[in-house]
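Summary for the steering committee. The consortium agreed at its last meeting that each partner would contribute one worked example illustrating the joint modelling workflow. Our contribution is presented below. We chose a case with several input lines so that the handling of multiple components could be demonstrated. No manual editing was applied between input and output; the record is shown as generated.
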Amino acid sequence: MSKTYEQINERIRSGKAVVYTAEEVIDLVREKGADKAAEEVDVVTTGTFGAMCSSGAFVNFGHASPAIRMTDIRLNDVQVDGGLAAVDTYIGATATVPGQKAGYGGAHVIEDLIAHKKIHLHASGPGTDCYVRKEIDTWITIDDINDAYLYNPRNCYQNYGVATNTSDRTIYTYMGKLMPRMKNASYSSAGQLSPLLNDPHLETIGMGTKIFLGGGEGYVTWPGTQYKTNVEEVNGVPVGGSRTLALIGDMRQMDAKFIRGLDITGYGVSMAVGVGIPIPVLNKDIIQRCAISDEEIFSDMVDYSQPVDRPAMARYSYAQLRTGKVEYNGKTIRTSSLSSYSGARKVASILKDWIEHKEFTLNQPVMTFPKDVKLNKLQERGC
Amino acid sequence: MDKKFKIEFDEANVQDSVSYILVTEFDLKPNVLKAEISGDGSGVMILALEGEEAKLEAAEKRLKEAGFNVSITKRIERDEDLCWDCGACVSICPVFCFSHDKDTMKVMLDNSKCIACSSCVNACSVHALSLHL
Ligand code: SF4
Ligand code: SF4
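What follows is the complete predicted structure of the assembly.
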């Protein structure tokens, strides 16, 4: 039994589509089997809400009179990109106030824009014959600038490692605060709800897939940076970081609850992004893969106190990690999640709601993503 | 109401007499959250005390008069509007103040056990946690 995108969209438009979240579908497939479940269900919704540093926003401020070509641009003192056209910028999520390592940064500017807060713009430029002005100081909001769209080069990491610290001092990493002598470990995946763990070989997700992004509608645009496929798989899903997605979405549709600026002690600024991807149940294999549960998804623990070469120390399932503790060589290590599971669940259920209420249909990808990609290392060469 | 007392003592005024005074004289319910006693008999302990406000104040005065160094300790507070339920704080707290609710998976805070160590404060990426009296 198989369905097409068009048949599923027809059912959505007529208000008859049956939608399950990636969590709800687990029990359904266990009870009824994949064949039956595939007949019954049209769409499975996934969700994730975690730190995604490779995020940012394109903005066009509009021209002042007289006009300026901005090359040094500050938004609430945060230095943003001055390398685009006169009044365009890219606000990188990890951008900071010059001279500061962390605190308020690009991600917070983006969150504040989405929240319709006033942002202080200070910019200067060289002054040219066509752009005579050299400086401007004003306040903007998302409602009075031109364009504002998120463009995230790498989101939705397909699985990620578990971090611990074997050294004698507390270390502060992008994987959070890691206490000495393996007192704790952190992990960061929505596991059974995570988009790319439910469609592990990207059969239905590709360029043009319509998604939930930050509370609004967005699209998958490209494979994310650092996309790779040569990762060991267990139960059909990779055991570490693997595929990623580049995403785009209109910030004016978004909700600041799902786009949060993060100030990670000792590391810097990052952005928590809520992303949900619908998976069309085209056949029983697809729903079988969506039925994967935290017991079947594994991740390797590595030592973040090692500056280079971090061999896998142990492998745990997300079900084990979510109990709050794991065992390692007879020692109990407490665990922390760094991505919000309740947030991921909210994303998946909002997306489900949209589809059930005929507000969201599915797009068939216009291009699928590569099947065989390895990552390059940065070479240090003389010339 | 309940308050948290941090009580420093030395060998001249041993630990158990504190609880005795609090229970018999002021009808307070003490709960030892943390006690560190060194070899010479001196130490520090953190007590959560439950009872009437007037009695809590009187007890504080009485212990000070008895020569104990008493201070009211802070406890962690969370700005619920800021918390995004990430869970980073969960494995940090030495006395397990944070936990995931099994059903909602939200991160719950029980600050009655808090010993004001401040360890969780800089583990929170949205500055939702702070220490208050
Ligand atoms: S201050 Fe210390 S004891 Fe209190 S909640 Fe935070 S980590 Fe726990
Ligand atoms: S670390 Fe902060 S945001 Fe995360 S769950 Fe704890 S209090 Fe909430």
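Chain A touches chain B through 32 residues (CB under 8 Å). Residues 77 and 97 of chain A are 6 Å apart (CA to CA).
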